[in-house]
Amino acid sequence: MKNILKINSKYIMVGATMALTVLGSCSKDFLEEVTYGEVAPDEMTKAENVEKAIISAYSVLNGQIDGASNAYNSPASNWSFGDVVSDDCYKGGGGTGDQSQIHQMELYNTTPTTYDVERKWMALYEGVKRTNEAMKLLNASEDFDATLKAQRTAELRFIRGHYYFELKKIYDQIPYIDETAETVSDYARSNTEFTSAEIWAKIEADFQAAYDALPSSQEEVGRPTNLAAMAYLAKTYLFQEKWQAAFDATTVVMGGSYELMDDFQSVFLPENDNGSEVLFAVQYSVNDGQGSNYNGSIGDRLTAPGGPYYSQYGFHRPSQNLVNAFKTDASGLPVNDNVDVTETDFVDPRLDITIGRPGIPYKDLNVIYEANWARDLATYGPFGPKKRILSANSPYHVTVWPYVDALNYYIIRYAEVLLWRAEAAVELGNLEEARSLVNQIRERAANSQYVQTLDGSSDAANYNIGTYDTAWTDATDAMEKVRLESRLELAMEGHRFFNLVRWGIAKEVIDDYLEVERTKRTHLTNAAFTLGKNEYWPIPQEYIDSVDEGLVTQNNGY
């Protein structure tokens, strides 16, 4: 049994609180007053009810906000927001008309009324609201243990920092509301009230406060630790190009007990998903009594790859470009020529752990992945997701609708911390440390269990991965190697697009990708990335229409 804090508990906000319902499913108003629960006002600040309010703040981490199965429009994993709009993935599904709004996202035709843009905004601000309300109840509680109160406050600041970090990287210039908000109108705020730097400073302050007060370990592993807060602070610095601060923060994290697991494939098993490599994760569970297993990976339920053991929803499909990125030379180093991989090519062993390829065994099912597993093969090609798909033999995999599982989504894992430090090291001129850090990642991949043929007699492909054994002397070349390693290690985990944007190379990379990829995948024929616009998503039109005229400024180009 996984020892977790169930983040999607049916515990809900207590009392008649004033709430932001950014997209009320049963209301035409973008902002409305909602009563959560039926607890009397004088009971709201009792310790047991405050704990329920805190659980409610955690519960939005999985992107589900209204008890429905459509969290795939606001997924915690960002498979649509971070992968489909990058060079790593296509939307997939039953053609371009299936979840057509996501198809428009991959063409860079997103608009302020795109449903997923609204749902993601709604989910994240619901998380902000619940966190703020829980903070107020906690502060007002007279019977809450004082020591535990400080810890819970730190947890809430960590969670709020996460929600705002997601909002900042997706929408950029956002309204910022803290626990001083009292009414619905307090949430109807301008998105230019604070500068970008001021918003980042507020996010930093939440993670710093969390680090200062959180313990080094938690009995309930779904709660953050102090080093998880420091890691998130490092990521916040990284997005602002505060290289020395990011480097120093990773020093603190690396001084703790987190470490790379020995085997790359084992990282993505539910029995290990709170292991030594995972600093913070969205906690999922199935068969726990929750209706429709909505505590499972509900935001990823469309990614089932098809075949004899899985539903053929067929979304989140790896691109040919991503497959090609795993090709290596005779020394095991990346080729990076975007020439299609053949059966005789050397490939990084992480390829067949990350991606389902025809002719390669799939998980431990004693079956070969075939091209006909892939839904709408003619449009999206033969490849399928694999890294974060559980074996159909796993007791943590649900074989009936809504086809979810209990593999946590990793918000931060230790391999990322090493790659962030390598990036900062290059920027600070320490190229050899960067090389050593990248080599740690590659050595782990090299020493991992490779995918085998069905009879177990040999490797399933020509796996060959080596380390960089020559000194790095050119900063530009070193940074390219760090960035490529980040792509290979973190593929299909929802990070790629956001990394391209913060590196300032989104336009260049996506243009090069589309130039070749549209010759293979005609659904991308009309895709075009606009510099200065498509780095961020638009502010939802329904939010703009629900606040005072002129209060909200739309993002550039929308």
UniProtKB/TrEMBL annotation:
It is found in: Cell outer membrane. Gene3D superfamilies: 1.25.40.390. Residues 277-558 form the RagB/SusD domain. The keyword Signal applies. Keywords: Cell outer membrane, Membrane, Signal. Residues 94-238 form the SusD-like N-terminal domain. InterPro entries: SusD-like_N (IPR033985), SusD_RagB_dom (IPR012944), TPR-like_helical_dom_sf (IPR011990). Belongs to the SusD family. This is RagB/SusD family nutrient uptake outer membrane protein. The lineage of its organism: Bacteria, Pseudomonadati, Bacteroidota, Flavobacteriia, Flavobacteriales.
